[in-house]
Write a structure and sequence with these properties.
By secondary structure, the protein is mainly beta. The chain has three helices and eleven strands; from the N terminus they run E-E-E-E-E-E-E-E-E-E-E-H-H-H. The N and C termini lie far apart (46 Å).
């Protein structure tokens, strides 16, 4: 594996990308090396999103996983980009939603790194002010 470089504001995870833990995530009970999937649109870079570990993921134009543990919303302020790409097995509808209508396929996605401690910490006011933090999850900011 090559040396990772810090992600910049123009390089953020997209829906379907993999997030790999570099250290233990205490609350989630997962060790370093565990991999989760970024939720969201696959053609957009996100400033934060939900991450689902031990997943089964529907991924077409949007990645949506079941499984867990997972995060409600994680800011990507401290993710680290790697030049590693990985083939991941996802599923989508063959033609339309119906019983036994899903098909599995392989998708090549980028791998990102994050410390497990990042998933356990309280978010800063700036991170809580990010648009998707409130919009996507209905979280109401508290005023002092």
């Amino acid at each position: 594996m090559s040396t990772p470089t810090p992600a910049t504001t123009t390089a953020r995870p997209k829906g379907g990308d993999i997030i790999r833990l570099t250290s233990r995530w205490r609350w989630g009970g997962l060790d370093a090396g565990a991999e989760g999937v970024v939720q969201g649109a696959t053609d957009q870079e996100h400033n934060g999103s939900s991450i689902i570990f031990q997943h089964s993921t529907y991924c077409d134009a949007y990645a949506s996983s079941s499984g867990g543990p997972g995060t409600v919303w994680t800011p990507f302020t401290n993710v680290v980009a790697t030049d590693e790409f990985k083939t991941v097995r996802y599923w989508r509808w063959k033609d339309r939603p119906r019983a036994d209508g899903g098909v599995y396929y392989d998708r090549v996605v980028r791998v990102w790194l994050i410390a497990g401690e990042e998933l356990d910490r309280d978010y800063t006011a700036e991170e809580r002010a990010m648009p998707n933090y409130h919009k996507s999850y209905g979280i109401v900011p508290q005023t002092q």
